[in-house]
Amino acid sequence: MENYFDKYLYLALFAPLVGSLFAALFGNSKKAQIVGIVTSVLLAVSMVASVVLMAYVYSTDEIIHVNMMDWIAIGHVAIPFGFVVDQVSVTMMVVVTVVSTMVHIHSNGYMDHDKSFNRFFAWLSAFVFSMMILVMSDNFAGLFIGWEGVGLCSWGLIGFWYHKADVPHSQDITKSPFSTLSPYSAVSPSWAANEAFIMNRVADLGMLIGMFLIFWNIGSLQYDEVFANIGMLSHELVVAIAIFLFIGAMGKSAQFPFNTWLANAMEGPTPVSALIHAATMVTAGVYLVVRTNEIFTIVPEVGYFIAGLGAFVAIGAASMALVATNMKKIIAYSTLSQLGYMFVAAGLGAYWVALFHLATHAFFKSVLFLGAGNVMHAMNDEINIKNMGGLKKHMPKTALIMTVASLALAGIFPLAGFFSKDMILESAFANEAYILWTVLWITAGLTAFYSFRLVMYVFYGKENYHHLGYHPHESYGYVIAAMTPLAILAVVAGWFEENFVEFITKSLPVWEGHLEHNIHYMLIGVTSAIAIFGVAFAVIKYMKTGTYFSNA
Question: Residue 384: beta bridge partners?
Fold first, then answer.
């Protein structure tokens, strides 16, 4: 019976690779619609296989482990090329493939008139394949191959429009390409791609050192062997390993001081932003900490550092989103902020909570980016939110879907973001990390405010684009159809919290807050109150007459 499900493992893993190679065959040719269709279908095959594997693991509690081949065998050194489908990896597989499939379908419309249509899909599918290797590998060596593959593909996709030039420098802060307040893009796509690539290579050196320390002292890179023997090592050595691994995670997940590449990565096509920020790349750092939780559990002091850094990044990025006027960068800063939330949970030992927020966040964040893509498509690639307004009557479906996703990001009940964000705040409170709780609580209010600042500027109020000659229109039907399943998941994903906990804690440590019921409900009330206040404040501020918004 197990061999039967091995086929699904290979199907889930290699379908994106086949799609990428197929698209690469047409790399230098004129646009071939068949490329977009075939890659999307193959991603859907991978998605179905992942869902089947999840159903199997959920119903039987069996872990599927495949040793494909011995990769390196020199003396006592043996590094196999193996893959594992357990509760953690299959959760990531489903999130990655569901989001990626919808992004592929959306890209058929978004890249419709792009001369490098075929090359785009070759990179996009390769990106997903790299991420699947990263999450499915049963050892650090395989993880590192996927890790570097994701980095390479992000370079190819962020710098996809390599023919675009830098925006000229300016002394005016509202026009300077390096100012958060500037609606202008900071750099050329090529520069942004190189920045992301080089910054990640610096962080990856830390991860490599951590892997070398593990191999040198344990003699294996297999997860099960490493986790079984990590307790034998001296405390100082485990601290060093944990810190070096986390440096790798900081690069991928853009934690301070490796955070600058993330906003500039917006220079790539918008579906790429959706993929990088929702399913691949930035979630890899969180996945690494969750996957290696048995190392971090031994050294809680490193965990506290991770949580402290996460809270700092959460509020710092939220403060940048408050003032940014570049639509994509506002959403990018919100990703950075939410990654901070995930690291707070992981640092405090609530690993399943971090993974839960990773999953719910993937759904609503991908919708926000795809919706931003629709708006840019309708507005001749305009990205300054102050040149928009009143788009709801021209793009009602996009407006509805983006509003729902923004409510989920703001953490409004009963949407997905409410459940996962609330659990993170609860984990901080239960661990008596009251300073972290306060920071995250304030950030929750800021998140709600800037989410609806964006919605109000873009879809409501005065139309500020007539002098620019734009004629906005709704996107293709199948583009909206691709966003709809993600929007539905952004609503309902949180409702399955109890099933998720029961499922995931077979692989991850059980974390329960042990808060009294009255405190538990009080925390929910306080968190919901500031989120609702943030939304209401943004709506009132940007709807009433006499504000800058109404006269812009």
Answer: 326
Residue length, the chain?
Answer: 552
Give the C-alpha distances (Å, rounded to integers) separating 337 from 141, 150, 319, 412, 450: 30, 21, 9, 17, 12
Inside any domain, residue 456: yes
- Residue 528 is part of which domain span? 358-552
The Cα 510–Cα 427 span in angstroms is 12
The DSSP code for 349 is T
Contacts of 217 (CB under 8 A, 6+ apart): 233, 237
The pTM assigned to this predicted structure is 0.90
Nearest to 379 by CA among 301, 488, 469: 469
Q: pLDDT tens, 177-228?
A: 444 445 555 578 888 888 889 999 999 999 999 999 999 998 888 888 899 8
Question: Quick one: CA dihedral 205, 210, 215, 220, positive or negative?
Answer: negative
Instruction: Identify the helix (H) or strand (E) that includes residue 44.
Output: helix 33-60
Backbone angles phi, psi at 439, to 5 degrees: -60, -45
Establish if 461 belongs to a structural domain.
yes
The dihedral of CA 512, 517, 522, 528: what is its sign?
A: positive
In the structure encoding, which two tokens stand for residue 481, read together?
């159809």
Q: Is the CB of residue 364 less than 8 Å from the CB of residue 408? A: yes
Domain count along the chain: 1
pLDDT digits (tens, 9 = 90+) for 277-336: 777 788 899 999 999 999 998 998 999 999 999 999 999 999 988 888 888 889 999 999
For residues 495-521, b (16+ Cβ closer than 10 Å) or e, as one string? ebbeebbebbeebbeebebeeeeeebe
CB-hemisphere CA count at 13 Å for 383? 20
Phi then psi for residue 484, to 5 deg, are -60, -45
Residue 146 lies in a domain: no
In this structure, what are the phi and psi dihedrals at residue 497, rounded to the nearest 5 degrees?
A: -55, -45
Q: CB of 158 within 8 A of CB of 268? A: yes
In this structure, the number of other CB atoms found within 10 A of the CB of residue 4 comes to: 8
**Virtual torsion, Cα 112, 116, 118, 123, nearest 10 deg:** -110
Q: Please indicate, yes or no, if residue 204 is contained in any of the structural domains.
A: no
